[in-house]
Amino acid sequence: MQVYADNAATTKISQQALQAMMPCFETYYGNPSSLHTVGQEAKEILEEARAKVAKCLGCEPREIFFTSGGSEADNQAIRSAAFYGARKGKKHIISTAFEHHAVLHTLNALEKEGFEITLLDVKNNHNITAQHVRDAIRTDTCLVTCMYANNEIGSVLPISEIGAVCKEAGVPFHTDAVQAVGHLNIQVKEQNIDMLSLSGHKFHGPKGVGALYVRRGLPLVNIIEGGAQERGKRGGTENLPGIVGMAAALEDACANLDAHTAKVTALREKLITGLSAIPHCALNGDRENRLPGNVSFCFEGIEGESLLLLLDAQGICASSGSACTSGSLDPSHVLLAIGRVHDVAHGSLRLSLSHENTEEEVDHILTVVPQVVELLRNMSPVWRDLQNGIREYIL
Ligand SMILES: *Cc1c(COP(=O)(O)O)cnc(C)c1O
Questions:
Q1: The pTM of the whole model exceeds 0.70
Q2: Are strands 173-176 and 116-120 parallel, antiparallel or unpaired?
Q3: 178 C-alpha vs ligand 1 centroid, how far in Å?
Q4: Ordered per-residue pLDDT tens for the chain, 395 residues
Q5: Cα–chain-centroid distance for residue 30?
Q6: Could you tell me if the CB of 9 is within 6 A of ligand 1?
Q7: CATH number belonging to domain 3-10+257-387
């Protein structure tokens, strides 16, 4: 049995998205900037896709800018707020300690350029609250950027409340909603979101395409200089197949949101309940405010990498945290940020589900994971010390 439970890293493209893309290769192959008929037909398809994305988010089509993905959208949003903030002498940015690296590394770069960054802490597995944000806002704050939902531990932040706080303070508010779009009901206007990043491949669209929503009137800087595409804010011939596929995937995700959420949440709960029975483990992330498909645990006395390899051998594709850090031996910055000590953070497992997963697959996971954890613990000198009382259990 092959079980794909790594949907937070990427999702399988949907049939709707794939079918929508094919005519872009065969029929609508024109350049949307060309004045002739073939070009103008491509332009029409492009604008239809923009309207679909806007409709799903509750904004106007002209507030959607297509990008090469979530990372680019994050970079552009943050760079824009920083540039226009600095012009007014405002060089303070508020974010959280468990953001995606697309946000954190952009903030690191800005810090070197003279910005002051406040990262709200999430120690003891606490979630961010609007009050944390309110307390951190200063007169020189030019941006609040808080992710909508965390990609490793699944915590969903109180985005509407944070949006209200930012609006009241007159501070632009950006959210990296890459894990949330297509999975949670998002209405940017009602939630007072000024900028929002999304990425096609996280909701069964193609890879290499995303979008940035920007409230009308907020200025943007270019990350990619070039032609006048995307109203002069993002040079480069549009990735029409990608954009059209993403729009179709999003439309499908929004139309089936309630049904998918109900199904995935039930699978998640079964997994969390089942895995909680393993001794000396802890659930990571917010127990209530949680992405429908996210299951994240730390198991004491094991190495996450060994666990993943043994699970893979049993047909289960999972992750130890973020796909971006799995090349390195450092534990995830997210798990360290929520207060897991190094040894515990190393024993992490993330299972991220989609509506395509089945109850049989969850049963398979619930059979295999406890066996593999036990096998690894029996081989572990650390576990032996814990069992003999030479070391103290943390979990
Ligand atoms: C995947 C992800 C990104 C990056 O999106 P890409 O389209 O892969 O560049 C950014 N933020 C979060 C929270 C993500 O999960």
A1: yes
A2: unpaired
A3: 6
A4: 999 999 999 999 999 999 999 999 999 999 999 999 999 999 999 999 999 999 999 999 999 999 999 999 999 999 999 999 999 999 999 999 999 999 999 999 999 999 999 999 999 999 999 999 999 999 999 999 999 999 999 999 999 999 999 999 999 999 999 999 999 999 999 999 999 999 999 999 999 999 999 999 999 999 999 999 999 999 999 999 999 999 999 999 999 999 999 999 999 999 999 999 999 999 999 999 999 999 999 999 999 999 999 999 999 999 987 554 445 567 899 999 999 999 899 999 999 999 999 999 999 999 999 999 999 999 999 999 999 999 999 99
A5: 32
A6: no
A7: 3.90.1150.10
Asked if residue 70 has its Cβ within 6 Å of ligand 1, the reply is yes
The CATH code of domain 15-255 reads 3.40.640.10
Best residue among 146, 147, 151 to mutate for probing ligand 1's pocket (most ligand atoms within 8 Å of CB) is 151
Pocket of ligand 1 contains residue 176 by CB under 6 Å:
yes
Answer for the pair 304, 348: CB distance below 8 angstroms, yes or no.
Answer: yes
Residue-range domain boundaries for the chain: 3-10+257-387, 15-255
